[in-house]
Amino acid sequence: MAKGMYIGVSSKAHKVKKMYIGVGGVARKVKKAYIGVNNVARLCWSGEYQLSRYGTTTALTQQRYRLGAASNANYAIFAGGSPSSGYSSTVDAYNSSLTKASGSTTVRERYGLVGANIGDYALFAGGTNSNGAVAYVDTINLSLTRSGATNLAYAVTELAGASMGNYALFGGGFNSSARAYVTAYNASLTKSEPTVLSAARRRLGAANIGTQYVLFAGGAGSSVVDAYNSSLTRSTITALSDVFDGLKGASVGDYALFAGGSKGQTQQLTTVATAYNSSLTQSTPTGLSEARSDLVATNIMGQFALFGGGTTSGGRVKTVDAYNTSLTRSIPEELYQVRSYMGATSIGKYGLFAGGMVTITSLSNVVDVYQIT
Hints:
single chain; about 375 residues; mainly beta; Neuraminidase; four-stranded antiparallel beta sheet; 42 strands
């Protein structure tokens, strides 16, 4: 991995973040710089982002799994979930310095809620409480004050959510049967209901492509991929290579990337990764390093998509797979402990993986942190 390069300014060392060279009177960005050592070119600086595991930060207030995760401009927020018994309303929030906020913000108690962000708000939608699936949407602002937006179109759990431009979208899910409803919220938290998914499905994946599209992919028994543009117009694009259940989505660069879960009628665990670019063209990058379900995904500053944890045929794992903006896969240092059903989101240069199930009788409150430099 490339080392940092520094330059002295007023007797202080400042890290070089970007470098340019004049070519034909035009400033060209230097992507990599090398130095000769024993007649061998050694990489001494890279203008590309580097990913590493930072370590752990202050633990969650409560051990729990199937918690919701989303961010607003000030905080990475983990909400709700299931503790050793019952349902949680707990909220834990971390700022861009990884300082855990104090306070008593809560959401309506439930597990399986799904997060997305829009404007100044982190939104937490759907899930399950003691009465079954719910349509709740809790919103948390920059001051960590909770309020409620208009409910989803339908009470559902096992839904998916993602954000683009002016909208946060939640789609699919389950309540006695798979559902196709899509609910959108703008930055003023005004609700709208665009055209439903082309196929009803649960345990689907969702991810955005910049501010242009939100994609809903796969789901139990489905290979369909629906794309919603910035006007909330739906199109149905190239399908996945098989039916996928429980896959996860994350955004990286100009791509929406989906990976993991199980495939086919036999529900075989899979490593398959599928990407769509801003032209909605499909590609198939290198798959995950381990076939697994019950994993989570997030991105850091749009520079890396991270897929962490999950369950393999041999049990829960602590593996993290990372994809850069060229869809090149790397495998950073593992999570602190094996676990599935975590929450994952990001704030600033950090990606956070929180909570989860360690064994069938043991839960976690650990918060793992990955960083880019």
